[in-house]
Design goal:
single chain; alpha+beta; 6-stranded antiparallel β-sheet; 25% strand; globular
Length: 162
Amino acid sequence: MSDVTVLPGTLAVRNLFEDLLGREVTVSPGEPLSADEIPTSTVAIFVDSAQNIYAVLGMELALAANAGAALGLLPAGAAEDSIDDKQLYPNLAENVGELCNVLTSLLNREGGPHIKLHQVVYPGEPLPGDARAHLMALGRRVDLLVDVNRYGKGKLSLSLAP
């Protein structure tokens, strides 16, 4: 059986964000989330049908706030206030949770395991140690800078489990 696990490309990520947010989005290679950024990041944990961690996705606070505001059709100032206060406001968090659920589609492939969103960990909540280790691991990962037109940009890191 061939390995059908493939990291999504920048085009797939851009298209998904644009389709969901209904606005132009630019995606380019970026820096990985640092250990210092993880406590303020939104982290999505994806599992396979056996409940094993398949992938971990982290969004820097700036990206979570900007995407959450854009998805909710809120003014860019809502995201800016959230970033300035160094917390993800509940209305933005709810929108980002939905975004994480939709991002699952980037991981499912024909012939591959069925992947589903298991948990979203919001800024300030404890991140399980195994999820943190996967997010920080080298190897099968993609690190992007996502810029949501008229809102702003932030880092997105996706790491597949070994």
